[in-house]
Design brief:
Layout: H1 4-9, H2 15-21, E1 44-45, H3 59-62, E2 68-72, E3 80-84, E4 92-96, E5 99-100, E6 122-128, H4 133-136, E7 143-149, E8 157-166, E9 171-180, E10 184-194, E11 203-217, E12 220-235, H5 242-245, E13 252-266, E14 273-290, E15 303-324, E16 327-347, E17 351-353, E18 356-374, E19 377-387, E20 392-405, E21 408-419, H6 423-427, E22 439-451, E23 455-473, E24 478-498, E25 502-515, E26 525-536, E27 539-548, E28 551-555, E29 559-563, E30 566-575, E31 581-588, E32 596-598, E33 601-602, E34 607-615
Length: about 625
């Protein structure tokens, strides 16, 4: 992987020019994250705008955000593992400008493959680290990862791009062109990535294009976007033991393509009754040819082929009522349809077909209220009722925020969540169980947030209880509801400046697990730290580190084993050569640390990367 600090290393050099060319324009963004009424003090924001040097995928940014563990499970071409506060990766709802992009038809049971997404498209990221089923319905069991797209400057023609190359023959290219006309804009962008020899026997090639359109219609706002991307990947299968341990040296070949479309219309912000309408479409196709994994401590896995297509259409409308200056109410309804179809084979000495087709409809009613009875005090409550073919689910959440003193805010919250069984678990012909129940969560959180002119600090404690978890029963040879997991802990994060020329940020998340089932890739603590010094207005030098404790992992050759923790340090330098041209240099994994995020898949060693960006 291109390391996370290399992405952050270009914060000044490339984004400095971009801030002149692609100014953030959407203070009133038509995106639903934690609430339809207002921003939550408990949410976690990335830098805005994000750096635009091109890493492999958005995992490099996510790993530098509090409460998130984000890694690839099989080298540069592996799948994504994104966990919020130790929860399963498929428990997080992933949104791109408000459009759901998680795929419940995959064998992983859901989640989103971040390797498909070009990080140059992303303006900023918000993390809501607790259940938001009362807002989003199914899948938001542990929280929400909301990716906000870049927009064009409203007032002029703008553009730019970047090129990145590394010492392992990898490269990344990106270009964009924006047109603004006062009350509207259009941005078109595209990019390509090739990881070269970054990780042994695991490669990724990705091509992607995006268009984003915004238009003011009187006091109304219209926004629409489309993203299309393709990837070609190969590498050792997950759990095979990777290049170090896999007995079968044949590689998995995996091609993916995805299309995401979004449309939002928002009424006047000042209106006593403000209507909003949103439509989203997501289509994801995965074609994989996976070789057999030979036996080891665990039983072998036969060779598989599959070609799976998943699509989701969602429509949502709501009305915000500003009943008084102190009380807002939102009420609305939604409809969603999911379709999945798959053809494939499993080789057990003879080829068995594994075709399935399944669809699922969901209708919803929801309401959210926010009351500000006293200066500095905000009370929020949300409730939702979802109906499916043969069941219904209700979920609620509530929170309180209180400004104790200037810059110091206390917050607390309670949330219930649910997640429907994945379409794969319900329909895959060899292991399907149509009687599975939804997985559920109950979450508590409390904390403090402090802001001054030069620093921001955030501290929280939390407890999450997950029940009716879906697991595979080898005796019954089917999926069942049987597990329960309790995860508690605390999180610390902050950012700020030291004097006029030094910037810093960092985070630490500490977890305590109570689970009868070993949880893979879940360290007891993890975090990041970064410091940058600006000796001159156009030059920035710095260092960044990510770290985590030991954790359990599994593979067929080894069974359950413990992988060691690590501290990975990156060094970087950035130079704003001219107003339009920026250059950056990064030495990733500068200490040549040796670690693994998955058994038998070594992380990249020391890698030198050079990036150039331009903007007009």
């Amino acid at each position: 992987m291109i390391t996370k600090s290399f992405l952050l290393a270009a914060l000044a050099s490339i984004s400095a020019g971009d801030e002149q060319a692609d100014t953030a324009q959407d203070d009133e963004r038509i995106v639903v994250e934690g609430s339809r009424i207002g921003a939550l003090v408990a949410s976690i924001e990335s830098p805005d705008p994000l750096p635009t040097a091109l890493p492999i995928n958005v995992l490099e940014v996510l790993e530098t955000l509090p409460d998130v563990r984000a890694v690839s499970t099989g080298g540069a071409g592996g799948t994504s593992f994104v966990s919020i506060r130790g929860a399963e990766p498929n428990f997080a709802q992933i949104l791109i400008d408000g459009v759901r992009v998680s795929n419940p038809s995959s064998s992983q049971g859901g989640g989103f493959d971040f390797a498909q997404l070009d990080p140059a498209l992303i303006e900023s990221i918000a993390i809501i680290p607790t259940s938001r089923s009362a807002v989003h319905g199914s899948d938001a069991l542990s929280g929400v990862v909301s990716l906000r797209l870049r927009g064009a400057d409203l007032s002029r023609v703008s553009g730019g791009g970047s090129i990145t190359a590394d010492s392992e023959d990898g490269y990344a290219l990106s270009a964009r062109l924006g047109l603004g006309w006062g009350n509207g804009s259009l941005l078109v962008s595209g990019g390509r990535v090739d990881t070269g020899d970054l990780t042994e026997a695991s490669t990724l090639e990705r091509d992607q294009v995006m268009a984003r359109f915004e238009q003011g219609l009187g006091q109304w706002d219209l926004s629409a976007f489309g993203i299309y991307g393709e990837t070609e990947r190969n590498g050792f299968p997950e759990s095979s033991g990777g290049p170090e341990l896999a007995a079968n040296r044949n590689l998995e070949m995996r091609d993916t393509s995805f299309l995401t479309l979004g449309l939002s219309i928002l009424g006047p912000e000042s209106a006593a009754i403000r209507p909003a309408f949103r439509a989203g479409y997501y289509d994801d196709n995965v074609a994989a040819d996976t070789p057999a994994i030979f036996p080891g401590v665990f039983d072998p896995v036969p060779a598989l082929t599959s070609d799976t297509d998943f699509s989701r259409l969602e429509l949502t409308g709501d009305l915000r009522f500003r009943l008084t200056d102190r009380f807002d109410l939102v009420a609305g309804a939604g409809y969603q349809r999911e379709d999945a179809s798959s053809t494939g084979t499993i080789d057990i000495g003879l080829l068995l077909p594994t075709q399935f087709a399944i669809d699922r409809d969901q209708t919803s009613l929801f309401a959210e209220a926010e009351w500000r009875p006293l200066a500095g005090l905000t009370l929020s409550l949300a409730g939702r009722q979802d109906w499916f073919e043969e069941r219904s689910e209700a979920s609620v959440q509530g929170s309180i925020e209180y400004v104790i003193a200037d810059g110091l805010t206390a917050f607390a919250g309670y949330a219930e969540g649910f997640r429907l069984p994945s379409l794969f678990a319900l329909a895959f012909p060899l292991t399907a169980n149509p009687d599975l129940l939804p997985e559920r969560s109950v979450s508590w959180e409390g904390g403090l947030k402090w802001e001054s002119g030069t620093a921001r600090l955030r501290a929280s404690v939390f407890a999450n209880n997950y029940t009716d978890l879906i697991d595979f029963d080898p005796v019954l040879f089917t999926t069942v509801n049987r597990s329960e997991t309790q995860i508690s802990g605390f999180s610390l994060s902050g950012e700020g400046t030291l004097g006029p020329s030094v910037e810093w940020n960092g985070s630490l998340t500490v977890l305590d697990f109570d689970s009868v089932v070993p949880l893979r890739s879940r360290p007891d603590w993890y975090g990041h730290a970064r410091i940058a010094w600006r000796p001159a207005e156009t030059l920035r030098l710095g260092a960044a580190a990510t770290f985590n404790s030991d954790f359990l992992e599994t593979s067929i050759p080894t069974g359950v084993i413990e992988l060691g923790g690590h501290v990975a340090v990156d060094l970087f330098a950035e130079w704003q050569a001219t107003k339009a041209l920026s250059l950056s240099l990064a030495l990733c994994n500068a200490l040549d640390e040796d670690w693994q995020d998955a058994v038998g898949f070594p992380a990249p060693g020391r890698v030198l990367r050079v990036s150039a960006g331009f903007a007009f």
